[in-house]
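Example for tutorial group B:
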């Protein structure tokens, strides 16, 4: 759940506060936009899984993948070097 205060957002899962984001000036953003931005950033920084990020954003997994695609954020993080290693060892 993302809770909006005057100039901050708090992400809470269950009874645990995950993060608090403070803004120096109030910003005009909907709760849905804030959830999507926060979830996208957490996923991009590899702090949460794809499934967890879609839960935070409160959207379906398929829709979240579509949003990531529009933002050119890879859904699968498979480094080229790891791929080369896996091919060589196959």
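The residue assignment follows.
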């Amino acid at each position: 759940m993302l809770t909006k205060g005057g100039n901050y957002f708090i992400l809470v899962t269950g009874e645990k506060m995950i993060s608090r984001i403070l803004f120096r000036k109030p910003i005009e953003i909907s709760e849905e936009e804030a959830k999507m931005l926060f979830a996208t950033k957490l996923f991009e920084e590899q702090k949460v899984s794809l499934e967890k990020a879609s839960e935070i954003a409160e959207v379906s997994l398929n829709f979240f993948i579509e949003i990531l695609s529009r933002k050119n954020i890879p859904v699968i993080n498979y480094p080229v070097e790891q791929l080369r290693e896996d091919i060589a060892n196959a």
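The CA atoms of residues 54 and 64 lie 6 Å apart. Compare this with the pattern of hydrophobic and polar residues in the output above.
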